[in-house]
């Protein structure tokens, strides 16, 4: 679906999903991995969400995917959900959720650099300025000392988060050109099923099955897992993949700037965490960066979108419905 044909209200609703819902998932992931192994937790999250979405779409009359569609969905699911979400889940055992969100904010920079390499030209100066402003503002938000102690970041956790950001950026760009013969949302379901299966295999190979103690799993971890299934995967991931079809990767990737701010605000509203002048100044910088990227990110070339579309136009969203 070309950008000009996407209803503005639905685009705003989808952006709200990836801005607000995904901003809250960092805390949910942190709670979930308290008593659940990270790869098995993430694998369960995406397998359940993917299976539910797949079954619902098939009951609505979607045709059975071809083998070649599964072969295309698998690497996308691996890049986005194993390399991306799985590594974030693992890293949050070692890195605070807010700091994790900051490092994941490097996704837009990776996308800009990858697109520059692909097109063999540098990003437009305003876009680069917006990226640098966003990264700098988030660096100010969670600079050393903000999370207690000396503010040092666990190096393995930081490396995993950087790898996750790069993997997510590659998967996002690849999903725009990979050809599938099914609807957008059926493709999303297949990617979640594939990614969830890969995460489960990775978890079992890492010995998580032997370490899982069902009796020790807390209610908070289970509730967090349920939240991630419904709001992180079914709503958030579906909205993200739909937005990749109807707008530019630079605009979609602005969620990585807003998510840390949302996480901080939720901490203030729900847990009584203080919102300092430092937080407010950083938030202004983040909003400014988002505005610059949205203003100067540019529109996708219509002919290219039509010729390289991953799928046919997606299942149409209904007002108030699930993305």
Polypeptide structure, described:
Mean pLDDT is 80; it is low at 299-323. Helix 8 packs across helix 10 (219-246). Helix content is 73%, strand content 0%. The relative contact order is 0.22. The protein has one domain (3-308). The chain is mainly α.
Percent in helix: over 70%
Structural class: mainly alpha
Unreliable stretches:
299-323
Count of extended strands = 0
User: What percentage of amino acids are in beta strands?
Assistant: under 5%
Major sheet size, sense and barrel closure? none
Average residue pLDDT: 80
Q: Write down the Rg.
A: 19 Å
Q: What is the molecular shape?
A: globular
Q: How many helix segments?
A: 14
Distance between the termini: 15 Å
Question: H/E series, N to C?
Answer: HHHHHHHHHHHHHH
Number of domains: 1
Quick rundown:
The chain has 323 residues and is mostly helical.
Topology:
Layout: H1 8-32, H2 38-59, H3 67-91, H4 97-104, H5 107-119, H6 125-141, H7 155-177, H8 184-205, H9 208-211, H10 219-246, H11 249-252, H12 255-271, H13 277-296, H14 302-308
Helix pairs in contact: 1-4, 1-10, 1-12, 2-3, 2-8, 2-10, 3-7, 3-8, 4-12, 5-7, 6-13, 8-10, 12-13
